[in-house]
Amino acid sequence: MGLPRNYVDTSLILALVAGFCDTATFTAANQLFSAHVTGNFIVFAYDLVKGADAETWIKLISVPVFIAAVMTAGWMAPRLGNDYRLLFIEGIILFGAGVLTIGLSYFNLQVAWWSAVMPFVIVWAMGIQNAFGRLYSKAVYAQTTVMTGNVTQVTLDLSKLLFSRNGDVSAQNVRRQIGIVVLFLAGCVIGAIVASGFGLWTVLFPGILLVGYFGRNNLMWKTKKVE
């Protein structure tokens, strides 16, 4: 039996968004991971042995920001009446952060504090997405923010498909898993190119994608629980 279209689409869209945002902050915000936030431990340790400065220590702020975002999402989720509204809120945060950055630049307002805060706003948005994946695991096909587990799973499933005859893995499932990894990679490439050329305001594009998708198809306007 086929999976619901919104189930597959949601997984692919979130993978694309996470890849974009994670690479955008890494590229344009001093190598800060926003989706795979524990990756900042590795970057911090590397910078530490190379001679840590103030910016190196600031990276660690991403962890409590991420934790606060997850806790907030966990508190909000049962009160929203619709599981997908968390993703709509994530989109609004990314879109709003991008628009604010453009506005400040347009009016030649050099607000130093916003330049420092902006990457952690993206971390907050990614914290919401990570929380959604854990709270509503049935709404996504696989993890959308960290690909190591997905690559491991698709490799194991592909091995079973090729070398086992027990039939407990379908080619369609493998294709979906590969699709998530490929979309994440595509998001990484796009995020790197766009953010390195234009800056962090470009996260408004994944914000538009989230807001547009979950608004257009009525996933968020109705009282809806993941089935």
Question: What does this molecule look like?
Answer:
With 227 residues, this protein is an all-alpha fold. The protein has one domain (5-216): Up-down Bundle (Growth Hormone, Chain: A), CATH 1.20.1250. 72% of the residues lie in helices and 0% in strands. The chain is globular and about 65 Å long. The mean pLDDT is 84.
In summary, what is this structure?
This protein has 227 residues and is an all-alpha fold. Helix content is 72%, strand content 0%. The chain has helices at 5-28, 39-51, 54-58, 62-80, 85-106, 112-135, 148-163, 171-198, 204-216.
- Provide a count of the helices: 9
The protein's oligomeric status is single chain
Averaging pLDDT over every residue, what do you get? Answer: 84
Elements, N to C (H/E): HHHHHHHHH
Secondary-structure topology with pairs:
Elements lengths: L4 H24 L10 H13 L2 H5 L3 H19 L4 H22 L5 H24 L12 H16 L7 H28 L5 H13 L11
Helix pairs in contact: 1-6, 1-8, 1-9, 4-6, 5-6, 5-9, 7-8
Question: Which terms would index this structure?
Answer:
Growth Hormone, Chain: A; mainly alpha
